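[#protein-structures] MJ: dropping Hexosyltransferase here for a structure pass
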Amino acid sequence: MRLFRRCTRISILSLLAISVFTPVFLLSFRLKNLNTDASKDFVEDLSILKHRIDAQANSAVQQEEVEGLKGPHLVVYRDGDHGSLVSLDENDRRHKAENVNLLQSNGDTYGGQEKNQRNLSEQKVSPSREKEKSRPEGVQHSRSIQSHLRRPLDEKVKEMKDKVIRAKAYLSFAPPDSNSHFVKEIKLRIKELERAMGDVTKDSGLSRRATQKMKAMDGTLLKASRIYPDCSAMVNTLRAMTYNAEEQLRSQRDQTSFLVQLAARTTPKGLHCLSMQLTTEYFALQSEEREFPNQHKLQDPDLYHFAVFSDNVLACSVVVNTTVSTAKDPEKIVFHIVTDSLNLPAMSMWFLMNPPGKATIQIQSIDSFEWLSIKYNEDQQKQKGLDPRYASVLNHLRFYLPDIFPSVNKIVFLDHDVVVRKDLTRLWHINIKGKVNGAVETCVEGEPSFRRMDMFINFTDPSVATRFDANTCTWAYGMNVFYLQEWRKRNLTALYHKYLELGSKRPLLKAGSLPLGWMTFYKHTHALDKTWHLLGLGYDSGVTRAQIEQAAVIHYDGVMKPWLDIGIQKYKSYWNRHVSYEHPYLQQCNLHE
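AK: finished. structure tokens for Hexosyltransferase:
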């Protein structure tokens, strides 16, 4: 009995001890954690106060830096005007470049242009609002539902990029040599979020880690907003950052455009190597081995005569091979190639090694035309342009076709950057109604090949305005059928000389043969069906596969030629398939697709 009572007493005392000491223990542990958090918050508050003091000490310097940055002009945009200065598309840039008159004889004042622009912008806004009001409610409701359903797929990605930009803006407020805890933290958050995003462009590609890093960035940005509460400084910094980014982008675009133009003017290393190889082989031949067969056909007016003026061996080979391979009667084709004296041996050697089937070929040098030095050399000096291609003799030699081929009555002139896909001998059966030039027109507004005469010719000049109509339909070089007999009757070569002379005395037209051709063959051109000649493969014009399949000739007009590295890949295959890349000389010169 005593033992039972003792055990009962001990158990009661134990329970009492536990009930007394447990609250004391829990309370002391809670107070310990509370003191730790309070000390951390206290340290953080001290850090924030320190950064605020630093920010206030450097506020004058920061304000001077922000004011010293070249900021953009303040513009108030209306509803719907969300385009950035950088987001000008190529059509707008091209249209703006074309409207900048080379001749600088417009006479419009800046004030008048500003009024017109203001009135035009007001007219643009009001009709759009009237249209919105006039729409039925059902249509507006359906569109609002569609816009709600079409939520952007990159909303989170854009939000993350915006947070990185904000973090960098806050980082710019810190002193340059600062190595504080906040600077280290915000640099770490920027690096982590950029790594987490990577090259992702859609929200579906983001990982859970990226979302976690964004939440961590939110905390850091909240802390930064407490340290730097001045919103006006942030606005000025972001505006300056945006403007500087746009300026850099514009500069990069200008540099890219210059490099593309430079690449278009230079000869690729592989083509130069090929010319050297062929030239060496040509001079190793005997004089009788340098002769081409069937030379008696060269002046036969009953045959199909084609002309190409070029110094590019590979380009000429593609033109010749595609024309002959698509012809119904290749033995009736006569090709006349004119090049300069430097490339004559290489051009001759290529076609001696690779004869164009049953067709007849003739290779000539411009130096063999003794009359040309008298007629053209003086005018050539007056046709000055930054691009030597425009003032070259080969480019203007097309205006002397009746003199070069005195016995030929009809000839098809081809540029060296074309590929023939259908039989061109059918052109001899087209009635061009007494005109001199048969060409495809380029006056359909909205098409990539659209041209107007006033884009290249100065119609503010009285002598131009009285002789020509600016609304006359333009046409393209590249594939033209010329009736040389009619050309001789009208003495159009003399007319060409007249306009060339006139353009050398005053700013009349842009450099090149196209505006001179429009003026020389004004009212002497017959429009061919557009399927004969397709333009736009030398720039990103949006030409479709169906259009290419229908065309008789496809033209790589523009600077992105198919034999250059800058050529457009989706169009290169139509040219590459006609080049014998397995040829040993092409292999030695590292020429490949």
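MJ: nice. The chain has 24 helices and nine strands.
AK: one more thing. Residues 34-49, 57-69, 74-143, 145-150 have pLDDT under 50 and may be disordered.
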